[in-house]
Amino acid sequence: AQTVTQSQPEMSVQEAETVTLSCTYDTSESDYYLFWYKQPPSRQMILVIRQEAYKQQNATENRFSVNFQKAAKSFSLKISDSQLGDAAMYFCAYLRDDTGNQFYFGTGTSLTVIP
Amino acid sequence: DTAVSQTPKYLVTQMGNDKSIKCEQNLGHDTMYWYKQDSKKFLKIMFSYNNKELIINETVPNRFSPKSPDKAHLNLHINSLELGDSAVYFCASSQDRERRWKNIQYFGAGTRLSVL
């Protein structure tokens, strides 16, 4: 069964600094997708970034980038120049390629940004 | 212009009651989902519908029943509510079941259900 592990329940970062959130997953599939979602206090789930497993190049979205290590089954999120608005729960998610769109979520990492 | 909208945002009710949560998406997506987020923030899928067909049904009590009157709506009905049903419920949708690379899920804002 697919599992997604986020080993850091809580993280904090100084404003303008860089922070990395960890995610590992377990799968026997070769083709899949990985996502990071952000859930601010408003509860809205917002897609931050996604990565296709067949792509070796790490995805980037402005201040957000990932370090995708397929062999190690690791998918970490790096937030550069952290802003107060980045404070939220961050969920790592895995999507299999051959089933009905079922996402597997990690347990989340609560990120605090210190002014 | 909300892409995925859920109503109500908050729902407080007594144990034993029957309640519904509505979800609508205006993205033209083919598949819709319901997730339950527990007190520890863990998200677990409950149902998904594709073209009015249930394609995923995890081990959810049969007190929970999804109803999809059309492709744009997937409502969640809950009968005989129990204390353990208290949680935040999220609706989501994605474009196309077959085209995996398009299957980003877009979420609603969540409905906080409190059973007293």
In short:
The complex is a heterodimer of chains A (115) and B (116). With 115 residues, chain A is an all-beta fold. Chain A is built from no helices and 12 strands.
Structural features, described:
The complex is a heterodimer of chains A (115) and B (116). Chain A has 115 residues and is mainly β. Chain A is built from no helices and twelve strands. In chain A, strands 2, 5, 6, 10, 11 and 12 form a six-stranded mixed sheet that branches. Chain A is globular, with a radius of gyration of 14 Å. The termini of chain A are far apart. Chain B is mainly β and 116 residues long. In chain B, a hairpin with a 2-residue loop joins strand 5 (43-50) and strand 6. In chain B, 0% of the residues lie in helices and 50% in strands. The A-B interface holds A 31, 33, 35, 37, 39, 42-47, 50, 52, 89, 91, 95, 97, 100-103, 105, 107-108 and B 31, 33, 40-45, 48, 50, 55-56, 88, 90, 92, 94, 97, 100-101, 103-107, 109-110, 112.
Task: Set out the fold topology.
The complex is a heterodimer of chains A (115) and B (116).
Chain A: E1 3-5, E2 10-14, E3 19-21, E4 24-26, E5 32-39, E6 46-52, E7 60-61, E8 64-69, E9 74-79, E10 88-96, E11 103-105, E12 109-114
Parallel strand pairs in A: 2-12
Antiparallel strand pairs in A: 1-4, 3-9, 5-6, 5-10, 7-8, 8-9, 10-11, 10-12
Chain B: E1 4-7, E2 10-13, E3 19-25, E4 31-37, E5 43-50, E6 53-57, E7 64-67, E8 75-78, E9 87-94, E10 106-107, E11 111-115
Parallel strand pairs in B: 2-11
Antiparallel strand pairs in B: 1-3, 3-8, 4-5, 4-9, 5-6, 7-8, 9-10, 9-11
